[in-house]
Amino acid sequence: MKFEFLFGHVRFMSRSRTVAIKAQNTAMTSKKKKNQKPVIKEETSQKEQPSLHFFQDPAETTLFRSQLLEWYDANKRDLPWRTLAMTEPDLNIRTYAVWVSEIMLQQTQVSTVIDYYNRWMKRWPTVEKLSKATLEEVNQMWAGLGYYSRGRRLHEGAQKVVSNLGGQMPKTTATLLKQLPGVGRYTAGAIGSIALGQVTGAVDGNVIRVLSRVRAIGADCNSPVVTDALWKIADTLVDPKRPGDFNQAMMELGARICTPKSALCTQCPVQTHCHAFRKVGIKQETVKKHLSKLSSNLKDDVPDIENCVGGGCSLCLSETWNVQLGVQNYPRKPVVHVFSHIHQTYIVFLVHVSECSEEQQQRSCWLTKPALQNAAVSTGVKKIFKLYESSNMANKEKKRKASPMKRSNKRTDPWLLVYSPIPIICIFLCYLGIIWIGPKLMKNAEPVNLKVVLILYNFAMVGLSVYMFHEFLITSWTANYSYLCQPVDYSTSPLGMRMASVCWWFFFSKVIELSDTVFFILRKKNSQLTFLHVYHHGTMIFNWWAGVKFVAGGQCTIFHRSVKHFCPYCDVFLLWACSPGTPDAEIFVVEALPHLAAAGKHKTNLNISIHSKATLLGTPLH
């Protein structure tokens, strides 16, 4: 029983009928109230009213159809399966195309399905071609959509159509339901109405929500009674001239307007038929205390939305209206805790692997980046790869914006002369100072005899060149370097550190080779102090400092330079060690710099030239 006081009137609602009780004058004595019998006026019983939950007025049904289809024609989304359903003249292909779309759309959002659908139809445009595919190919194409049993059923159904039905898709809703695996009542209704023009309803989650709100069905929508009622309403409403468009319009309305939360009721094309929307309006007026005006304006032919509450109706709300929910009171679903959807948390580690054991190879499958994009891997794996890619991009952007010192190769920072450019700058300034003041100091002095020093110096440089050549060659060969283009290796692996170490030795040799200039000055060979000589020695120390500081590994084809240094140093060593006096030959090398050609009185294509007491303008061999 429920009582509602309306300014001097009491409305009494029971299971079978609604009555209005005329209240007596409030100034009467309590005794008179007790003895006074109320004047009872029976109103129209529920059995005489139009049913609250069904469409019984043909005019209302026709208006509902026209309003919904008009909205659909103006607002429908352009989806590939809709285009195929409208333009494909072949009934068999049209039915197959709609079947594929409906299976893909189960438990998956439209935005996700579009790309998969286009790729699927491009690869298997007919049921015959799908039947010839392998299950592995189907699973690979399906990877990322989830619920892989759907793809398997599509494949199984295609093989059944080809083998049992002669390649012809079923032509009615009943045969679709009976002959295709994985096709239920809704899927059969959707395919039948959209592809075959069958006048049948299609009730999915969106349609359930729309119909529950339009007809104020608040009971559990999973119960058999409610399910039957919803299908009955859907079959009544479907437009016989455009059944496919009507069913898609209902789905579109539920997906875009009559959403589970935050429904856009003001934009709904059928709001005038919606009992839930009307009830929201009534409750809002109640809150504003306009009941007296509202009760006088309500028409007698409008069904009383309250008349089933608490009255045992199997389609009504089993509890009172929740004002905060509004239209979300319909449909009212039981609270169910679902254990089938497991939330997984991945902890991702990035590991650089140069090789793997035979046991690992048997249990693993290594993929390149392009292969991973098309591989049959789960969405979780693809999310991990996307995280890896975004992390790489973020790190690259961070390094790009960081200062040069922060972007340096941290492996070589502790090594001599590497951490900061200041020591190298100081050495270079001292070098320039020696070049400027050295010849002046030696102007009136005798040349210094450096035979023993030069023998030891060249012998040491020969040994260092041999060592560097060996290390460059063996390390690059062992690490499978490409001698055309090799990516930079920043790893701390043994081979990576070995290559970085020999790069440092090459850099340090450039510092040692500044001694060549000092030897020229002490021996008063000032003619050899050319611009090219100074330019070469000065730039090499900075180039190799930067290389060791920021690269030191990879892109290495320079071991041939060690050979070039080895041969001349060996020649000079032999000349100085074996000749009885000062050798009559000076050895020079013309460096092949990409941006600076060697210029002078003599031009040669040879890297090494020997001239007797020559004054060849070029870089002297060290």
TrEMBL record:
Cofactors per UniProt?
[4Fe-4S] cluster
Q: Name one Pfam family in it.
A: HhH-GPD
Record-level Gene Ontology MF annotations: 4 iron, 4 sulfur cluster binding; 8-oxo-7,8-dihydroguanine DNA N-glycosylase activity; adenine/guanine mispair binding; fatty acid elongase activity; metal ion binding; oxidized purine DNA binding; purine-specific mismatch base pair DNA N-glycosylase activity
> A GO term (biological process) for this protein?
mismatch repair
Matching PROSITE patterns:
ELO (PS01188), ENDONUCLEASE_III_2 (PS01155)
Name the chemical reaction catalysed here.
Hydrolyzes free adenine bases from 7,8-dihydro-8-oxoguanine:adenine mismatched double-stranded DNA, leaving an apurinic site
Q: What is its EC number?
A: 2.3.1.199, 3.2.2.31
On whether Iron is a keyword of this UniProt record, the answer is yes
As for family, the record states: Belongs to the Nth/MutY family.
Question: What protein does this entry describe?
Answer: Adenine DNA glycosylase
Organism, by scientific name, is Danionella cerebrum
Taxonomic path: Eukaryota, Metazoa, Chordata, Craniata, Vertebrata
